[in-house]
Amino acid sequence: MSTAIGTVTAIKGMVVAIDSSGNERVLALGDVILEQELIRTGVDAQVEITLTGVDNVVALQGGESWLVTADTYTPADQFPSGDSVASVDAIQAAILAGQDPTELLAPTAAGAPAAGAPQGNEGADFVQLNRTASETTPEAGYETIGLSSFVEQPVSEEPVQPVADEVPPAPEPEPEPEPEPEPEPEPEPEPEPEPEPEPEPEPEPEPEPEPEPEPEPEPEPEPEPEPEIVNLQLFAVVDGEYVSANTIYEPGSLALPGQSPEQGERPALPTDGEYVVLEVDENGIPLATQPSGTVTVNIGQAGDDATPGEDFSPSGSQQVTVGQPFFVSAVDDALSDNGESLTLSLGGGWSNEGAGVIVNYSPNAVTTTILDETDNDDPQDPPSYDDNDAAFTFQLFAANADGSLNDDPSVINEDGETSAYYIVLAVDDSGTPLADQPSGSVDVSFTNNGTTSDADYNYVSTTVAVGSAFSSTAVDDAFADNGETFTVALEGNYSEAAAYEAIAYNNDTVETTIVDETDNDDPQDPPSYDDNDVAYTFQLFAANADGGLSDAPSVINENGETSAYYI
To answer: What's domain 228-376's superfamily in CATH?
Structure first.
């Protein structure tokens, strides 16, 4: 940062300061002058700069410039005036005493080799100071007097004589134009003679009428061919039979023992339904020979229990080939939705339909029932739950008050009656909490370990909301029971379990330790007992023989060897 060396104390006209980067600023009265600035005055400008710490003024006239460098000023802190006065006083005293003043001066810090400078041709061999007794008038190399200014005042002015405006001359009248001569009238044309009428031609004689030809006899119309009638009907195929209803199972469903003996003890049940569109006769019996072409089938209708895409697939309008089987598959899910159904019907649009063909689409629909893994849960004894799909796995975690997971040991303190927090979350197969947590509640339990009792802590409820933190709080007492523990466990009983085939519960528990005020009694030296709770305060009293308190002075006598009592 540049050093401030002075201040503008008088200015007239345009004066600018230019820094080393070429930035220009216009100076005003009171502005600070910085080192390494170039001060430049205008043609008619003047400026006075009072240097900081020096009784000196730099004055610049119009057109002059000054580069503010160290060789043009001396900062006050680098030139102690006390040393200067002392040096001058010493030299004057030496002259008056007839001594050589040069002997009093200290050697210079640089220059000749005698002063410590290196050998070379840039310095002098020696420096000698002699008194010449000459006199001169000290003058600065530039003007140091203040600025002068003079404002001329008018002495008198010649009055200005008003000049009357000249009147413009009146315009001369324009000469009137001469009247134009009237044109002579054109002569009227002579009328043309009317043409003579042409004679009318004589009428031609009318031609004699030709005899009309006798009409040919019309051919007899050929008989129209009878239209072809095609009857199409949709069927479900079960064990090779064409039926109007069938049943399919969600993937993973297992047959109970004896349900399908020919397929083994626990065979898998069919998850795909088979269907076909056939041409039938007037009695609904499929024909031996089937036509080709495609037709539209609607899979699923409004009002069905089963949900397209979630319970079965494909869905909607599908093109199928007449006489060729097509399939609809059950979709496995964890919902308890046993017995839902869907409807399949013909939609028309047979590709071979054309002229001479009448197509009748049977309105008979096919109903398909979907059974899930809960179908075999009841009334078997015991029920079969092995094939049920678990919708969620719930797990208990130690938590912070905001519900975030806490990896530190679960601890509560009697001092301040602090709380420990827990949370139940749905997790994936690796135990990582799901991003979207289900609603509902589950049951948890608090089990005392060892000497722990219900009086050592409390909690709000054993039914807690999934995804929300719940807590237990220490109860401050005077018992020295530091380190007692209790266990928090997930018991299950998910409130919305009925909507799902199965719910899984992780067996992990959280053990919470209760820390009381004796925890810091040892091994501190000395131990800290200040925070311990006082259970009792004991006091000694004077008493009677029956234990009642005695307010009399406690006295015993040797005569008779009486006794004094205390309690």
So the answer is: CalX-beta domain (2.60.40.2030)
Pairing mode of beta strands 441-449, 463-465: antiparallel
Residue among 501, 496, 478, 483 nearest 371 (CA): 501
Q: How far apart are CA 398 and CA 471, in angstroms?
A: 10
* Res. 105: pLDDT tops 70: no
**Token pair belonging to 46:** 């003047």
End-to-end CA distance of the chain: 89
Q: Is 203 exposed, middle or buried (0-12, 13-18, 19+ CB in 10 A)?
A: exposed
What is the spatial distance between Cα 20 and Cα 279, in angstroms, rounded to a whole number?
Answer: 104
Q: How far apart are CA 310 and CA 333, in angstroms?
A: 8
**CA-to-CA distance for 35 and 71, rounded, in angstroms?**
11
Report for 21-35, 175-189, 472-486: range of highest mean pLDDT:
21-35
Cβ-Cβ contacts under 8 Å for 176 (sequence gap 6 or more):
none
Q: Bridge-partner residues for 433, per DSSP?
A: 427
**Topology match between the domains 228-376 and 390-520:** yes
All structural domains of the chain with their residue ranges: 4-78, 81-109, 228-376, 390-520, 537-567
- Is residue 284 a contact partner of residue 335, using CB atoms and an 8 Å limit? no
User: Using an 8 Å Cβ cutoff, are 375 and 368 in contact?
Assistant: no
Q: For residue 187, what are the β-bridge partners?
A: none
Q: Which two tokens stand for residue 360?
A: 């009748």
- For the question of whether the overall pTM of this predicted structure is more than 0.70, the answer is no
pLDDT of amino acid 108: 57
The CATH H-level (homologous superfamily) assignment of domain 390-520 is CalX-beta domain (2.60.40.2030)
> Chain centroid to CA 208: how far?
106
DSSP state of 145: S
C-alpha span between 133 and 269 (Å, rounded): 136
CA separation for the pair 274, 329 (Å, rounded): 9
Q: What gap in Å lies between CA 371 and CA 269, rounded to an integer?
A: 10
Q: Between residues 186 and 269, which one has the greater pLDDT?
A: 269
Q: Round to whole Å and give the CA distance between 115 and 112.
A: 5
Largest interatomic CA distance in the chain: 202
Q: Which DSSP category does 50 fall into?
A: E
Nearest to 492 by CA among 422, 441, 448: 441
Instruction: Determine the pLDDT at residue 451.
Output: 78
**Is beta strand 316-321 parallel, antiparallel or unpaired with respect to 245-249?**
unpaired
